[in-house]
Amino acid sequence: MEKKIVENHIHACIMCSPHNPTGRVWEKWELEKAMELFKKHDVYVISDEIWSDLILEGYKHIPTQMISEDARNRTIAMYAPSKTFNLAGRKTVPWGVWDPHESGVTAVTGEGSF
After folding, report:
1. If pLDDT is split at 50, 70 and 90, which confidence band does 112 have?
2. What is the H or E stretch that residue 106 is in?
3. What are 95's strand-pairing partners?
4. 36 Cβ partners below 8 Å, 6+ apart?
5. Pick from 82, 111, 110, 85: nearest CA to 95
6. N- to C-terminal Cα separation, the chain
7. Element containing residue 48 per DSSP (H, E)
8. Residue 83 CB burial class (10 angstroms; 0-12, 13-18, ≥19)
């Protein structure tokens, strides 16, 4: 992955955890390694965590922003109730950006057509 980041001048990455369509939940050590590379090469992350409420027994979703202080500052995490709670008609997408001046994630609702 590091070779691809460097060769292709990658500045942003879209991650999906749990992964769709496989349902694979990324383990903490995998997220840590990826976030170390992203920090090293100044890559920002859009983390699609829309499936985070649908985890099979024995697995645990780890929010990308919880990996490290740096991960909190370079990641936008996206969630939506449409998948888990069957609210596909709702035209808003909740997303969170870590705000170091606040006491946690600033939750924002973006609106628009999809």
Report:
1. very low
2. strand 104-111
3. 78, 108
4. none
5. 110
6. 31
7. strand 44-48
8. middle
